């Protein structure tokens, strides 16, 4: 590859908001066979909002939300922010929390008044033997709409369910269609529930989903795909995506995400728009063709 044409390619990318780190990233981009996309913040806006509060039989909705917001006040996770904002929008006072702790990919907990409040997914509830059977139907309905079901427990009892929804970015569907038209294999990777993942994927024409992935396992999944022969571009936005971006043949960070993700990536999409991936792929082909 002549350095000159690569520089021109990198410059063209920059003008279109596609920042390419070096010549190698552009060369590798031309060879990718598979694009792995993180769901939250990559396919979706990454700004979820609270859609519904569903209290279990003997629980009170306002109380449930107040408890959850108390714990989530100490969390920086987008789901936590959505829950705190939801409580504020309903004019609820948020009590203080003590002994806050979290398990990445599962949820958060802390002491609110007399009770230990846990907020998170089914895996968190299972770990503490909290029976969520009574909330299961509501959870599945939410997931089938593409929303995330967040369980809330007080002590060892399920108190209810919070339905949190993150809108799909307006440009995502077209970008996926164009990637598929280029015969690229498109895979969604997410820490979210399988059912939610499938609902979102269905709307975008993505037929491969890898869900319920713990933050520490994303990079392993990328390397498994590579062992199976795939040349992988991985796009993500979060701190927990950084190792997977580094493992991929080309890491693609959303400019709207965390600095850690951008540092691990060969390509950064300034506006976080997936059309940037299409542009980057097109650019790599054009540049490499000019060189040969
Ligand atoms: P993603 O792949 O979407 O970035 P994460 O690994 O951040 O996912 O989180 C995976 C799952 O863990 C979430 O879908 C949620 O069920 C649960 N979770 C993580 N953090 C929290 C939190 N602060 N409050 C509630 N649930 C959480
Ligand atoms: Mg994420």
TrEMBL record:
Domain of life of the native organism: Bacteria
Subcellular location: Cell membrane
Similarity comment text for this entry: Belongs to the cation transport ATPase (P-type) (TC 3.A.3) family. Type IB subfamily.
Name of the protein described by the UniProt record: Copper-translocating P-type ATPase
Species of the source: Elongatibacter sediminis
Full-protein positions shown: 350 to 641 of 698
């Amino acid at each position: 590859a002549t350095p000159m044409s690569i520089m021109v390619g990198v410059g063209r990318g920059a003008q279109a908001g596609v920042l390419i780190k070096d010549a190698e990233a552009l060369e590798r981009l031309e060879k990718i066979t598979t694009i792995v996309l993180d769901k939250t913040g990559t396919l979706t806006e990454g700004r979820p909002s609270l859609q519904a509060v569903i209290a279990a039989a003997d629980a009170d909705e306002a109380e449930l939300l107040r408890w959850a917001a108390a714990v989530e006040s100490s969390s920086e996770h987008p789901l936590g922010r959505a829950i705190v904002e939801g409580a504020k929008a309903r004019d609820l006072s948020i009590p203080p929390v003590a002994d806050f702790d979290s398990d990445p990919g599962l949820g958060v907990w802390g002491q609110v008044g007399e009770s230990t409040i846990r907020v998170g997914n089914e895996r968190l509830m299972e770990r503490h033997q909290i029976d969520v059977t009574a909330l299961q139907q509501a959870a599945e309905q939410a997931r089938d709409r593409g929303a995330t079901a967040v369980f809330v427990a007080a002590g060892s009892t399920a108190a209810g369910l919070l339905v949190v929804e993150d809108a799909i970015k307006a440009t995502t569907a077209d970008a996926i269609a164009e990637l598929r038209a280029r015969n690229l294999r498109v895979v969604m990777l997410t820490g979210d529930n399988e059912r939610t993942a499938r609902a979102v994927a269905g709307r975008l024409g993505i037929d491969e989903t890898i869900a319920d992935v713990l933050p520490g396992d994303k990079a392993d999944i990328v390397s498994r795909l590579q062992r199976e022969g795939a040349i992988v571009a991985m796009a993500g936005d979060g701190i927990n995506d950084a190792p997977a971006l580094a493992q991929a043949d080309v890491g693609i960070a959303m400019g709207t995400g965390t600095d850690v993700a951008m540092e691990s990536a060969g390509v950064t999409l300034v506006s976080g728009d997936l059309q940037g991936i299409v542009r980057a792929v097109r650019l790599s082909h054009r540049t490499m063709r000019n060189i040969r």
